[in-house]
Amino acid sequence: MTAAAATAKEPPRARRPGAWALFANNRLAAAGLVILVAIVLVALAAPLLPLPPPDITDPANRLIRPLQEGHLLGTDQLGRDLLSRLLYGTRMSLAVGVSATLVAALIGSLLGLIAGYAGGRTDNVLMRGIDMLMAFPYILLALAIVAVLGPGLMNALYAIAVVNIPFFARNIRGITLGLARREFVDAARLSGKSNVAILGTEILPNVLPTIVITMSTTVGWMILETAGLSFLGLGAQPPQADLGSMLGEGRKLLFNAPHVSIIPGVMIFAIVMSINLVGDGIRDLLDPRLRSGALARPAARTAVNRESVADAPREENANALLALEGLNTRFEVGDEIYHAVNEVDLKLNAEDCLGVVGESGSGKSVTAMSILGLVPTPAGRIVGGRVNFHGDDLLSVPLERLRTLRGGAIACIFQDPLSSLHPLFPVGEQVAEAIRAHQPLSKEEVRQRTLELLQLVQIPNAEQRLSAYPHELSGGMRQRVCIAMALANDPEVVIADEPTTALDVTVQAQMLRLLNRLRRERNAAVLFITHDFGVVSEICDRVAVMYAGRIVETGPAEDVIHAPAHPYTRKLIDCVPVLGEQDRQLDAIPGLPPAVNRLPEGCAFADRCDRARDDCRVGNVELAALNKEGRAVRCLYPLVEGAEGSG
Amino acid sequence: MLLEVENLTRQFGGGRTLTGRRPVVHAVSDISLSIDEGRTLGVVGESGCGKSTFARMLVGLDQPTSGSIRLAGHDIRGGRSADGRPLSATVQYVFQDPVSSLNPRKTIRQTLTAPMRHLLKMDAGQRERRLDELMDAVNLRPEFLDRYPHEFSGGQAQRIGIARALAAEPRILVLDEPVSALDVSVQAQVLNLLADLKRELGLTYVFISHDLSVIESISDEIAVMYFGRVVETGPGSTMFHRPRHPYTGLLLRSAPVPGQRRIHGEPKPAELPNPFDPPPGCAFAARCENARDDCRASVPPLDIATPDAADPESGKAHVACYHPLAEKPDKNAPPTP
Amino acid sequence: MGAYILRRLIFAIPVLFGLTVIVFAIMALIPGDPAVAILGSYATPENVEKLNRDLGLDKPLVQQYVTWVGNMLQGDFGRSYSLNRPVLDEVLERFSATLILAGTALLLCSVLGLIAGIVSAVRQFGWADRVITFAVLIGISTPSFWLGLLLILLFAVTWQLLPASGMYAIYGGGDLPDLLKHLILPAVTLAVVATGVIARLTRAAMLEVLRQDYVRTARAKGLTERQVIYRHAFRAALVAVIPVIGIQAGFVLGGAVYIETVFQWPGIGAMLVKAISTRDLLLVQGGVLVVAASYVLFNLLADVAQHMLDPRLKL
Ligand SMILES: Nc1ncnc2c1ncn2[C@@H]1O[C@H](COP(=O)(O)OP(=O)(O)O)[C@@H](O)[C@H]1O
Ligand code: SF4
Ligand code: SF4
Ligand SMILES: [Mg+2]
Questions:
Q1: Domain ranges, residue C39
Q2: Which ligand is nearest to the CA of B243?
Q3: Edge-to-edge, what's the strand order for the sheet holding B40-44?
């Protein structure tokens, strides 16, 4: 087997656009950068430009309006050239703002790193100190510091830096705290690294992006604040000018010469705005969550774009309760198309339990979520097929009808009961909501029904648990609540997406027992998704095996498990250790499933299949009926019953 | 005995705060176990039963509240083994989550050379040679060395995690749910790899998992944990054929097996006791069919199981139960395929 | 809940105590002799010394501090030399004016920010989102003191719709409509930046929440889109936004310093700026302390609100 693993295919290296391309793609950020660079260049070049000196007064030419000969932006109350003062003031403001940012970032990040990494008492002492600083309204503290140090630009710089230290310290501490608990820090410790080395070489590189983001998003703010202090007369002292003090002086002339104050204001605005744009761009660039576009809001239902649709269900599905026909669902992320679900056919008869088995990423969840339009759009899109429920195509019913079906005739149970329940509502309320959404009952009736449901799923002390919050319950209890919610309106179909995967084995056993009983009592059909053939045996009548977004084999659960016809099914069963068979050599499947954005032609399993021949890699391998009991397999050379032993 | 653990206990919390005492959680209580060189000890139990806390104490990532851990007879409290080298040069750890145990901003080369540099003090040439050996040992191609963790699948990342643990040339590997985050097909690849490595390098494993069949397939000895305590130990080959502790029996009855409809889940929902306020007696009493009054009065000690004429290995089994399961092979034995 | 509030109040005491230490330390560090500042640079050394003795400034710092705190606990904040009136009277009078201004601005920015953020998130990438995002960007990039000037120029000078400064009209004012008329420009100016920040954060929080599993559950239950967004998502987003509103309260209180100067609003901010330039120590001390204490109190309220909304936080 080691030889097989050695040939394990590497995943295709992700083709990422360079950082610069991404940044330039963000048009606003690019525009901000252009403006900012222009301002900085002009400010830097100020001494080289043919400008009158900024501080030379010329009372004869006081308060000249802009656009006059010799004074492009006019003059101020002392006859000083405004353009010249503006450029020198910009230099000053930029220098002070940037320095203050650097000082605050350096000290704040250091404090944050130490507090977050050391934890315990050090953290407590440092953070209490920081809290104390934060207990002052921001500018008030700066004022107090300037009061101590006396007015002046340097002092304003210190004041602004000091009041921003807590901001950096808190941010960086939070990140560090999270990182310090990550396993790679433990791994580094076990590699013999000292605390200082871990802090400097393991944690710092991971914190750096956050520091840069925090800097880029605060530098604009600091420039504003420094200008503010100067505006109040506490920063730059005459004749020295920064943008804030120019504004402050101009304020007195607001009524008769507004240009004196408007011009520096526009400059501050332009600087801060361009910095904010650039800062947002940098943040988007460095924050991978934002970069992947994952922050898009999912629509109320999955987008459906089918080129053509059949008018009616296929003949064989005419009487099926729920039938998927040729379902195609994909995700469009940037230029990549992920073919998550391809030509999936599934049929669920009344009171049947159909298992869908496959490894992670094989498309089980997307298939199930496509039925009720719960695949998130953007990214997700259904591009073909029909979903028949009692013969109606669910992909084309109006949203309001879909809504009444959701949680009504078709209910869902999800994998992780903690994240699937709203953390801020009591569980009783969440179950009651499911009832109210579909049945016009009085308050008391809803309460009664909620209680019955909780008792039905065997929640002890149901009456008290009505007002419990999800975090107060154990994993098993939470999943019981989710089941109660799903059963609230006597559904005909329950879609259960790995409902026991997150649970411990004894709790899973309780849950399977409960589900099995309830589905029989309530005559509900179940679409049960799992990756465990043991669970399939326990609860399912029929099973469908998925691989790379396709159904590769389907049939009665027992038949498929005892005599799998598809080589993948066979291997999937054989690679799991079985209780009581300690000595069996595990038959590992070499390699990895193909990436669904680069599906190969022909059989997707060919690279890992020891029966593969040349014709397996061309054309499209169809799902073909194997026998009369509804068995079908997508393989050119299926295993013949009985011929193949395990291991 | 290569590794011996005696009365190991770890409590979290406690201590004073401004408004009183913080509650104490008993994560691990009074564990005594030992393991011979070259063997695999499987530790099985459900989430929250203290498996990871136990494992972290073995490698020195956490310190016991009381009790001792001895490595070849030498107490490791100081974080060093008998020869004065750091403990991590002898005992290494493989993490559950393969991706989060690799620093996202370091190449695989940087991650793998750290233990060689800090623990083994190797020079650059030695490190290069060792890197090649390691990548070969875990069946990864050498060109992966200069890539970053996000470029790897879970199975590959876990092999890198194993390589990192092996880099320090340890004698013992503590593996904390090393395959739980992996898909079954990849899980088999990693399990087979671990078996090969153990044979080739003469390693000793402490293998932690919640999966009974995985534990059975890999262990020479098995310890079952419940609520911070070891409730049963025994040889890997027989324990699951003849469970003695009612909890072990329940675990076995709860595990699904392909091709069989056999689970008898508990009829009523059962929960773990409150860890802040553990019961005075057996923690399993509330769920146990055999429970009687004496079970609720005091914690049953882990004693040698009553010898059993039919089972020559029975002398090696220990069980912490006042009323262990009687032998009813047809009901509790695992299924025959 | 009551016990929690009580505990928070008790925990606020050391913070307030710390505040007095910091304020006192800052003032003690001020270079120069306050007596000289009061008497002017022509004062005789004897007079300076006498005044220092009268003010208790010749005592050791610790003793000065104890006296100062002791007096404050009895409601004696000292006398402002520049105004020649008790500090407490002046501070309270000024502070009530600031509260009117800052309170209005905080209300404005919370309501507008939340609404804008929700609309922006719900209509993500639509025109409403674009307009709001752009307006927010402009809002947070504008210096508020300059915006105030522009608004005065437009509304007071050019169109003559609203008064340019003060809290009440000098002649015949003093009633509520008069106050409101004076309040509009400064309150709006003060609220602009905070509105932008809150809107941004609300949008991000809503988008984050809308991707959560429990929102999918809400849809899978058959709830209407309205219920999903305004009940399930908004409730969770609010928990993330409330601490930010608490922080913004600090910015609004502090920003009042500029706005009061620009609009000549008789609040505590304008008073502080003047007191700093005249080196009226006791006035600065008292003013800073009262504002900081009120901010501590406000953050306490925000914490309590968050605990009421989020059962996961231990009471
Ligand atoms: N929100 C999404 N954005 C992009 N791709 C997705 C998204 N959700 C799922 N996919 C892709 O769809 C494929 C199938 O996923 P899924 O149905 O969740 O698999 P399973 O449930 O079998 O583990 C995977 O390859 C995954 O990468
Ligand atoms: S079609 Fe060919 S490659 Fe695919 S599973 Fe069948 S035999 Fe293997
Ligand atoms: S000690 Fe008693 S309660 Fe505990 S497992 Fe044994 S029989 Fe059951
Ligand atoms: Mg899934």
A1: 2-73
A2: 3
A3: B91-94, B172-176, B204-209, B40-44, B221-226, B229-235, B318-319, B303-304
* CATH number of residue B41's parent domain: 3.40.50.300
Rg (chain C; Cα; Å): 24
Top mean pLDDT of A627-641, B69-83, B285-299 is at B285-299
Question: Which chain B residue has the Cα nearest residue A540?
Answer: B261
Q: In whole angstroms, what is the distance from residue A450 CA to residue B88 CA?
A: 55
Using one digit for the tens of pLDDT, what is the confidence trace for C71-84? 888 888 888 878 88
Comparing CA positions, the residue from A532, A626, A630 lying closest to residue A573 is A532
Q: Is A455 on the interface with B (CB under 8 A)?
A: no
* Furthest C-alpha separation in chain B: 67
What span, in angstroms and rounded, lies between the C-alpha atoms of C284 and A229?
Answer: 16
By 3-state DSSP, what share of chain C in percent is helix, strand and coil, each rounded to 5? 80, 0, 20
What pTM was estimated for this model as a whole? 0.86
Which chain A positions have a beta carbon within 8 Å of C292's beta carbon? 135-137, 140
- Are the beta carbons of A504 and B334 separated by less than 8 Å? no
Q: Is residue C80 part of a domain?
A: no
CB contact (8 A) between residue B184 and residue A2: no
- Give Cβ neighbours of residue A566 (< 8 Å, ≥ 6 apart): A545, A552, A553, A605, A633, A634, A635, A638, A639
Using one digit for the tens of pLDDT, what is the confidence trace for A395-425? 889 999 999 999 889 999 998 888 999 999 9
Mean predicted confidence (pLDDT) in C39-57: 73
The Å distance, Cα A614 to ligand 2 centre, comes to: 10
Query: Quick one: A580 exposed, middle or buried, by C-beta within 10 A (0-12, 13-18, 19+)?
Result: middle
The Cβ of residue A126 has, within 10 Å, a number of other Cβ atoms equal to: 18
Residues C99 and C222 in one domain: yes
Query: Which DSSP letter does residue A601 get?
Result: S
φ, ψ of residue C90 in degrees (nearest 5) = -60, -50
Domain count, chain C: 2
Q: Is the peptide bond before A239 cis (omega within 30 degrees of 0)?
A: yes
Ligand with minimal distance to A498 CA: 4
Query: Does residue C22 sit within a domain?
Result: yes
What is the Å distance from ligand 2's center to A636 Cα? Answer: 6
Laid out side by side, the sheet with A624-625 consists of: A410-413, A493-497, A525-530, A353-357, A542-547, A550-556, A632-633, A624-625
Report pLDDT digits (tens) over A602-628. Answer: 898 988 888 888 888 888 888 888 877
CATH code at position C210: 1.10.3720.10
The interface residues of chain B toward chain A in range 96-155, judged by CB-CB distance below 8 A, are 96-97, 100-106, 111, 114-115, 117-119, 139, 141, 144, 150-153, 155
Instruction: Please check whether residue C5 is in contact with residue C308, taking contact to mean a CB–CB distance below 8 angstroms.
Output: no
Rg (C-alpha) for chain B, rounded Å, is 21
Averaged pLDDT, B179-198: 88
- List Cβ neighbours of A110 (8 Å cut-off, separation of 6 or more): none
How far apart are the CA of C172 and the nearest CA of chain A, in angstroms?
25
Please tell me if the CB atom of residue A302 comes closer than 6 angstroms to any atom of ligand 1: no
Closest-CA distance, C117 to chain A, in angstroms, reads 13
Residues of B in contact with A476 (CB under 8 A): 269, 271
Q: Is residue A486 part of a domain?
A: yes
Instruction: Examine the pLDDT at B308 and tell me if it is beyond 70.
Output: no
Cβ(B285) to ligand 3 under 6 A? yes
**Chain B interface includes A504 (CB < 8 A):** yes
Would you say the CB of residue A494 lies under 6 angstroms from ligand 2?
no
Tell which residue, A210, A211, A220, has the closest CA to residue A287: A210
Task: Indicate the SS3 state at residue C40.
Answer: coil
The residue out of C42, C73, C104 marking a domain boundary is C73
- So what's the ipTM on this one? 0.88
Cα of A568 to ligand 1 centre, how many Å? 20
Same domain, C254 and C289: yes
